[in-house]
Amino acid sequence: MPRPPKAREALLAAYRDLLVSEGERAATMDAVAARAGVSKGGLLYHFKSKDALAEALLAALREAAALDRERMAADPEGPARYFVRTSVNSGTDMDAFFVAAVRLAQAGHESALAVLEEMDAAWLELIRREVPDPAVATAVMLMGEGLYHYSSLAGTWPEKTFGTSVGELLAVVDRLSGRAADSTP
């Protein structure tokens, strides 16, 4: 597949970054073009509408999520530990695309909501292959989702706020999934 033009990449990054930093209402076509340093005509050459920008953003998120699921499925520690261990927002492109998609979903963008639901279902399916108890698999999923949520906020989560490290959460994953003997009497 040929590499997309730099202007297209810059426009998509500008749209993503505006969604993350200022929200869906601020991510106008004019604001995207200005932030990318591209003329409005250049923007319209690559993206005919704001919906086209959103669809390109969601396609990039789907691609990043597919690569993440491949890594998750192949992780030697298993999908459950991988999911929780990597559920800290570390500022990757996938993190930025994910947060941008959440902003779109919050604004009522149905395709964004569908992509987010699709991603969650695929991650949960991988966890369920390893952790057959549906309630435990869901608890692991929600642990990772909560970790991601709090790490996406400004502040000092997890250690300073809750007094819990990711390593300690992984030990809980092991206990819940039966990978480690329960240490409680």
Descriptive overview:
The termini are far apart. It contains 10 helices and no strands. The protein has helices at about 5-20, 30-35, 40-45, 50-75, 80-85, 95-105, 110-130, 135-150, 160, 165-175. It is mostly helical and about 180 residues long. The protein has 2 domains: about 1-50, Arc Repressor Mutant, subunit A, CATH 1.10.10; about 60-175. Helix 4 (about 50-75) crosses helix 6. Helix content is about 70%, strand content about 0%. InterPro entries: Homeodomain-like_sf, HTH-type_TetR-like_transc_reg, HTH_TetR, TetR_CgmR_C. GO terms for molecular function: DNA-binding transcription factor activity; transcription cis-regulatory region binding. This is HTH tetR-type domain-containing protein.
